[in-house]
Amino acid sequence: MEKLERISSADGRQIFEVVQDNDGSYLLHKFVRKYDSEEDKSYEIREYPDPTGRFGDFDSAVKEAKNLLEIEY
User: Fold this and answer.
1) Which of 25, 23, 13 is nearest to 52 (CA)?
2) Out of 15, 19, 35, 69, which could bridge 31 as a Cys pair, Cβ 3.0 to 4.6 Å?
3) What is this structure's pTM?
4) To the nearest whole number, what is the mean pLDDT of the chain?
5) CA quadruple 57, 59, 60, 64: dihedral positive or negative?
6) Cα(4)–Cα(33) distance, rounded to whole angstroms?
């Protein structure tokens, strides 16, 4: 799999990575940013399940990520 683009919510707490699978289709991987007050650090962790579906083209995958994050495009 190849990571192609990261799309973040306005507050930076939710992130989607658009990745291309070995078969040429595109998938979305979801990440969230959490803050640990004891260590005074932010962590980015993968959140499961990822959004379902495979996309036939890059633009459709990006559009869906923006829809899920409620980003105007």
Assistant:
1) 25
2) 15
3) 0.84
4) 93
5) positive
6) 19
